[in-house]
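Sorry, can you check?
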Amino acid sequence: MKNWKIKLVAGALALACIGSSACTVVYETDDSSDLSGITTSPDENTTPTADPVVLPTDEELAKVIATVGDTEITAAEYYFFIYELAQLTAAQNGSYITMYGGVMPDFKNTLKQQNIMPDKTWHDYLKDEMKGYLEYTYLIAEAAKKEGITLDDEELAEIQKSVDEFKAPDGIPYLTKELAKKCYEIGALADKYRRHINDTNPEATDAEITAELEKNRKKYVTVSLNYFAITYDDGTSTAAETTAEKLPTKDDAQRYADKFLACTTNDQFKQVAEEYIKEFEPDSTEEDIEYYVGGSIYEGLGYQEGFEILDWAFDNERKDGDKTAIWSEKDKAVHIGILVKAPVLMEDTLATVRHILVEEEAKANEILAEFNASDKTSETFGDLATKYTTDPGSKETGGLYENFGKGEMVAEFENWAFDEARVAGDVGIVKTSYGYHVMYFVKKAPKYLSTAKQAVETERLNAVYDRINKDYKLELNEDFTKDLKI
């Protein structure tokens, strides 16, 4: 189709259908503490460069380039974490990077000549992101020290195990095991304090949840909407524009707006949409027509700011069957909407579970037996998850995945969580293609309640982190970052 405005508006509305608050289990991500190096062959979308990376000298590595409270950060630590960030980014977003024309980083050569995206190099991306990444680690670690939080012997032993397995990326010999140990300890302390903050965050009360629902009602309701946008030629389009795109006149737009508004069923709305496309997009294929006609019917649509049609649809006074045609002189478009179903609370059920992922069934049975011999609380299960799980996506949160809906998890995992007989405290073992999951069922609740509860608790957590950001500033020597040797 040539009518790009229709496609862009429809696409933006489609994004509003995506539910928030649920996490998807991802097991493909590598442990971010493994800096063994990411190097791939040319046929894996890499672009080797002719210029090897220029390594910093020992004197340069020893320089203090930042401070957080009483803690000094050396250039060596900065470089360690910048390579960790590079590996983490590549592991989590590799498919997107290559899809959009970027390459995976080759650390033997300068990242100034390797693009993460068509218009940005890995060097510039990492430099832009590093201050926030350091704050995420050092500020939390500094707050942990002030609170008297320390690493216990078991945690230090786990760090030593990672240090023993550590291997620097090819061509970066100064990332030593000694440096890795220091940085791992800082990262582990920050992770431990984050868990402490999460664990001690008060649960939202019924009164707080009710107040949140009343204050931000649009966030917790959905509508069903038939929508179509028509851009028109108001007489000011250039010859090139009218040649490239067969735009209707404003009278044509009015004619079709009247046809759409006369519809009383979804099928009638689709028929008018198809008629419009065939008249003004005659080069559209049957596949195009089917796609865009089908895209005019929205069910379970969530609110998104910035769209006048959604402001209309989500108004508290709306009723089933309400209709509108919103004319935008600025966009030279008319936005037609028929409200099939007025705003209603999100009734979909969301589940919350903890899980421990391991490779062997015997190990899963052993962990389940250890849990059954304990006090059998959610907190105890979380401690076991932090100790045993191989899932990096939930290790820091005690195996917790909160408020996910159907279709967001692997099938076997989801089927167990959404079993109608499931009650709080249920445990079991589920086998998937990723391994064996020791499961602990926490709760299930309507989406609007779960989402509002999470919003209240997240706001409270954000206040804690805002206080930390205020109390502990990262002072970074910007001159150092002007010539990063990566």
About this structure: The longest helix spans residues 75-99. The longest strand covers residues 333-345.
